[in-house]
Design brief:
By secondary structure, the chain is an all-alpha fold. The protein is built from 10 helices and no strands. It has one domain.
Length: 213
């Protein structure tokens, strides 16, 4: 029974994390420019937020979900402004040849930690300020009749959601890393040059849509 609940949670986590949006664009761009570790940490930030919203839906925290829904406009405003800021900084960023894995491991510890923490925190905050995430969880859980009365079942379901989300980010970042390794430094530089403009414009566009909505 618990195995079935775990598999159901993993599928839910994959289904919610997989659609391409601003978080996916950020992870792809960071993987290309800063390496696999930063890309993975960015994805784990989003997975953590998915897990937290999974807790709200699985444990039926009505008061908290009602508060989140009531403050949808404020959350969307904060998330939209943050996306616009990230889009502009990405668009204006100078192209750089991404470090190899060995280069990343040899980087100064303080700088690496700062990059990892900021990468994790930014995607965590962006996902948490997206009201559609918690609404998606609540709607899917209710639509599928997932109402856990057992504490162990609820914990298993939430763990499955987190695991499914993590699996998606692992697959995405691994795919981007593989493609990145097929490029010569010169081609990677040219690709990053155009990718900064494209990804920056798309992320900024997501921010504008959030603000208008």
């Amino acid at each position: 029974m618990l195995l079935f609940i775990l598999l159901k949670g993993i599928l839910l986590g994959l289904a919610i994390a997989a659609p391409v949006g601003p978080i996916a664009l950020l992870c792809i761009r960071r993987t290309l420019t800063q390496g696999r570790v930063v890309g993975l940490v960015s994805g784990f930030g989003a997975a953590t937020a998915d897990g937290l919203y999974g807790v709200v839906a699985a444990f039926g925290l009505t008061a908290l979900s009602d508060r989140l829904v009531a403050n949808t406009d404020y959350l969307q405003l904060i998330g939209g402004l943050f996306l616009c800021y990230l889009g502009l900084t990405t668009f204006r960023a100078k192209p750089a040849i991404a470090l190899t894995q060995s280069d990343s491991l040899n980087a100064p510890t303080s700088t690496a930690n700062l990059t990892v923490l900021s990468a994790y925190g930014s995607t965590l905050a962006l996902t948490l300020t997206n009201p559609a995430t918690v609404l998606s969880f609540i709607a899917i859980f209710a639509g599928l009749g997932i109402t856990q009365t057992s504490y162990l079942s609820s914990v298993t379901l939430v763990f499955g959601v987190f695991t499914g989300s993590v699996l998606w980010w692992l697959m995405l970042v691994s795919g981007v890393t593989y493609l990145r390794r097929q490029l010569t430094p010169q081609r990677l530089f040219r690709f990053n040059q155009s990718a900064n403009k494209v990804f920056g414009a798309l992320i900024f566009g997501f921010g504008v849509v959030a603000l208008l909505a």
